[in-house]
Amino acid sequence: MTDLAGGDAELIAASVEDPERFAVLFDRHAPAIHQYVTRRLGRDAADDVTAETFLTAFRIRARFDAARAGVRPWLYGIAAKEIGRHRRQEVKALKLLARTGHDPIADSWTDSADDRLAAEAAARPLAETLARLSAGDRHVLLLFAWADLSYQEIAEALDIPVGTVRSRLNRARRKLRRAAGAGGPLVEARIHEGDPA
């Protein structure tokens, strides 16, 4: 996905002289960043981390290189760094999910009781595996799965080569597939949903 019509990169450049223009960028991208952070850290931290992400983006906007990266990867890269600062909370939440099988964040997504029961049964082994992934592997996997970034966008967001994105994603998927053995076909199908053809 590229920058939205109206030129996000141009908005950033214009906001250097006219800071109020940055508000349009916030309005366009804050909901997606907030949703991603909520999935990673929970509702309690999402407001703060989203605010910190955009505050950092605003502060360093003059250094944004429109030739190198799109705005989405740039913002998700900043969010990933902020999430890294809150990593202990994320791992704690994943361990709680692994222990209890209850994901309060997913409650709002799951409508039917059958889906909720299947999701909770699958959640424990997956959450435990996610908690044990290295921060780099977890960032790549969740930017791919939850933020819907392409390999190239993830590479730009995290400032790593595309080959590193591929190897980290492959390693994380292997570990999740092993954990999915306990979760059955539902979990296995979800792991494969994002597999490129």
Descriptive report:
- This protein is mainly alpha-helical and 197 residues long.
- The chain contains ten helices and no strands.
- Helix 2 (22-41) runs antiparallel to helix 3 and helix 5 crosses helix 6.
- Residues 1-6, 107-114 and 182-197 have low confidence and may be disordered.
- What percentage of residues falls in helices of 4 or more residues? over 70%
Order of helices and strands: HHHHHHHHHH
Mean pLDDT reading: 79
- What does the radius of gyration come to? 17 Å
Low-confidence stretches: 1-6, 107-114, 182-197
Q: Name the structural class.
A: mainly alpha
| Beta-strand segment tally | 0
- Structure annotation, total helices: 10
Based on Cα principal axes, name the global outline: globular
The largest sheet is: none
Strand content: under 5%
Give the distance, in angstroms, between the N- and C-terminal Cα atoms.
Answer: 18 Å
Task: Offer a quick outline of the entry.
The chain has 197 residues and is an all-alpha fold. The chain has helices at residues 8-17, 22-41, 43-59, 71-85, 87-100, 113-132, 135-145, 151-158, 162-180, 185-192. Helix 2 (22-41) runs antiparallel to helix 3, helix 4 (71-85) crosses helix 8 (151-158) and helix 5 (87-100) crosses helix 6.
